[in-house]
Write a structure and sequence with these properties.
With 538 residues, the chain is α+β, with helices and mostly antiparallel strands. The chain folds into four domains: 10-82, 2-Layer Sandwich (Gyrase A, domain 2); 94-216, Beta Barrel (Cyclophilin); 238-380, no CATH class; 407-529, Cyclophilin-like (Cyclophilin). Helix content is 16%, strand content 27%. The protein is built from seven helices and 31 strands. The chain has helices at 26-43, 70-82, 106-113, 117-125, 270-280, 497-501, 516-536; strands spanning 10-12, 16-20, 48-54, 57-62, 94-99, 129-134, 141-144, 159-162, 166-170, 173-176, 181-183, 186-190, 211-216, 238-242, 248-250, 288-292, 297-300, 304-312, 321-324, 329-331, 337-345, 379-380, 407-412, 428-430, 438-442, 458-459, 464-466, 474-476, 483-484, 488-492, 508-513. The strands form eight sheets. The protein has a seven-stranded mixed beta barrel. β18 (304-312) and β19 form a beta hairpin.
């Protein structure tokens, strides 16, 4: 009799399957999840791109183009878990994290709890914490075991920027920020432990199932932040004169690292990036320049062959191959249609690969050009040209079949019924607060989200439609976190992710429920259209 048994795999849109795992205790359940994760990774199931463990469930992500039958993949995942040797388990580590208890909210938390600093420190350092999940930020561990008497509500107004290494308490959770980010936790201390380092063989210090203790320690004051690096000097092919609004280097992303809290990243509209690369003769996953709303001004120091696909900019044609003479300055201006354009250069933008990808992850400060958006004065290198396609002398943006204009087709999630039929067909507008993490929508709120306040965090993906307590949906994009605590209405089908990425502030959008079979048909149509372009350029 196999040691592990679990319910049949459940589908998450057309991107993942989930297996629920139970046990007699939280620790036992997490041990079973980790053992199942190890077994699935060892099985090397074709099409699987990521394996993400979280409390009570294992989420197995796959490439929609690579997996035609998610049911068969789910069966293979279940079989891998059932075949795992009883008691087999990957290496679970124990950690000691030094903490200087001098955080800006320490005295306030002590006052709210009616305890001294010494008692707070003693209570916070006493437990052995269990790492239940990794997410929010790369390497950020969700820790179980905070004493109930230390539970403190999150701050009413979150900080715009919490320094990396900050140790905080938020509700019944505690943990340390692996990178600087906005946050609403109460900061009681800081650590100099490197929680994530992309150059290490194991980038994230923690793994799900690890155990750790906080240890009070003396640390020198925080040094002044060093200025962001300008990046290595190079024999530049391109110089940035003006960077535009938010211009980054992107490829097709870095799958395989979600277990460490690393999002996919890469082009928000991967279809446009693929087409732009095809037009100039690059591999489809070559690094290109992603321009958002307001394009850059670039000077080409030597002759180049380029193509722009995606959003329409007045300063440059879309969907055609253009030979640019040395010394030419190109100014793209404000978009007139769409949100993001992809400028491919024959040879590809040559930046170092980090965790197998050249895409920029700004929140973690790695990948792309010095881990940040481009700035005036940056100098970009270009790789060796493979070949240059003749190009198509017409605008090459795929028009996918839509039942209604600006409609995002969604495979409903397990919680969709809680929002009722009102979620479908209601019109929302895209908010100016949208970014590469997600498209924020505004309109008549979806009721039902408040019923899930405090729900356990679950794995989320580009295309997941989260509904926070205010009822205003968020369609996650390429840089979205890997774990989320908001209820999910459903998953935007893979074929419609490019449409979501091209929504700009003020655009109207609606949701339409579809089946997995319909999602597969739409993706096959899209891939056939890309294949036709690929064939025409040969």
């Amino acid at each position: 009799m196999p040691e592990m048994s679990f319910a049949s795999p459940e589908r998450v849109g057309d991107v993942a399957v989930v297996i629920r795992v139970g046990g007699l205790s939280a620790a036992e359940t997490l041990g079973r999840v980790r053992r199942l994760a190890d077994a699935v990774r060892a099985a090397a199931i074709p099409g699987v791109t990521d394996v993400v463990a979280s409390p009570g469930r294992l989420t197995v992500a796959y490439g929609p183009v690579l997996v035609a039958d998610p049911a068969a993949l789910g069966a293979a995942v279940a079989a891998a878990g059932a075949a795992a040797e009883p008691g087999a388990r990957g290496e679970a580590l124990e950690h000691e994290i030094p903490v200087a208890y001098d955080g800006p909210d320490l005295e306030e938390v002590c006052a709210v709890k009616g305890i001294s600093r010494e008692r707070l420190v003693a209570a916070h350092t006493e437990p052995e914490y269990l790492v239940e999940a990794i997410g929010f930020l790369p390497g950020f561990g969700y820790l179980a075991g905070l004493p109930a008497n230390l539970a403190t509500p999150r701050r009413a107004t979150p900080r715009r920027l919490v320094p990396a290494g900050s140790v905080g308490i938020g509700g019944g959770q505690t943990g340390a920020y692996s990178f600087a980010s906005p946050g609403g936790w109460n900061l009681v201390g800081r650590t100099d432990a490197r929680l994530f380092d992309a150059s290490r063989p194991r980038p994230a210090l923690f793994s799900v199932g690890d155990r750790m203790r906080f240890v009070a320690a003396d640390m020198p004051p925080v040094a002044a932040a060093e200025p962001l690096p300008k990046g290595a000097d190079c024999a530049a092919a391109i110089t940035v004169i003006q960077p535009g609004l938010f211009t980054t280097i992107q490829d097709l992303g870095r799958p395989g690292h979600r277990a460490a809290g690393v999002p996919l990243s890469g082009a928000a509209d991967p279809v446009s990036l693929r087409l732009a690369n095809l037009l100039v003769g690059n591999a489809e996953d070559a690094a290109a320049i992603e321009c958002t709303l307001l394009g850059p001004t670039l000077r080409f120091e030597r002759e180049a062959v380029v193509a722009l696909v995606g959003a329409v900019f007045p300063g440059f044609p879309t969907g055609v191959v253009t030979r640019v003479a040395a010394g030419t300055e190109l100014t793209f201006g404000h978009v007139t249609a769409g949100c993001r354009g992809y400028l491919a250069v024959a040879g590809g933008i040559d930046v170092p690969a980090v965790l197998g990808s050249r895409s920029t992850l700004v929140v973690a400060g790695f990948g792309g050009f010095a881990g940040r958006p481009l700035r005036a004065g940056d100098r970009l290198a270009v790789g060796a040209t493979l070949r240059v396609a003749a190009g198509l002398q017409s605008r090459q943006r795929l028009d996918l079949p839509q039942s209604k204009p600006n409609t995002l087709r969604i495979i409903p999630g397990e919680l969709a019924e809680a929002f009722g039929d009102e979620a479908w067909g209601r019109t929302f507008r895209t908010s100016s607060r949208s970014d590469r993490m997600g498209v924020r929508l505004e309109g008549e709120p979806l009721v039902g989200a408040m019923a899930f306040v405090g729900m356990a965090s679950v794995a989320v993906f580009p295309g997941s439609v989260q509904v926070p307590p205010d009822g205003q949906p968020i369609v996650l994009l390429a840089d979205a976190q890997t774990i989320g605590g908001y209820p999910v209405l459903g998953q935007v089908i893979a074929a419609d992710l490019p449409l979501a990425a091209q929504l700009r502030p003020g655009d109207e959008v609606r949701f339409e429920p579809v089946t997995l079979a319909e999602a597969r048909a739409a993706l096959e149509h899209q891939e056939a259209a890309i294949a036709a372009v690929r064939e025409a350029l040969r």
